Write the structure tokens for this entry.
Amino acid sequence: MTKKTCIIFGVSGIVGRNLAEHLVGRGDWKVIGVSRHRPPDLNGIEHRSCDLNDPDDVKQALRDLGPISCAFYATWSRQANEHANCLSNGAMFRKSRRFIPVLSGLLQS
Ligand SMILES: NC(=O)c1ccc[n+]([C@@H]2O[C@H](COP(=O)([O-])OP(=O)(O)OC[C@H]3O[C@@H](n4cnc5c(N)ncnc54)[C@H](OP(=O)(O)O)[C@@H]3O)[C@@H](O)[C@H]2O)c1
């Protein structure tokens, strides 16, 4: 079976990990997961470590990616209050938009 490939940002978190395990369990997806820390027991999932707030780190982590079918953004960093949540996570998402062209160049239908 030819597998489609996806990349999941936030793969060590609740949403990202469950999504990754669901897709791997289907058998028709290759999953590349991204987070700063490699979670334990990440069976069947290729992991790449980087800090999304560090563009050079992201560039290094995403090098040599082959074609992908889709990307999921499930990254989240809890702060002291909701205002700080919005500021911090908004800033991280805006920084992350920089690598969208890189991912778009790899997208296949
Ligand atoms: N609006 C809200 O109140 C709210 C609350 C919770 C979640 N959410 C949304 O729900 C989704 C995920 O939630 P969740 O409960 O699964 O979150 P979670 O369990 O806290 O997981 C967060 C993920 O983001 C990664 N991450 C955090 N900072 C990072 C950084 N600087 N660079 C790279 N990776 C980073 C973490 O991995 P590492 O720590 O290993 O890097 C982890 O994999 C997100 O889309 C989030 O916006 C919204």
Notes: The chain has one domain: 4-104. Residues 82-96 form the longest helix (15 residues). Residues 10-16, 35-37, 51-53, 74-77, 85, 89, 92 surround NAP (CB under 6 Å).
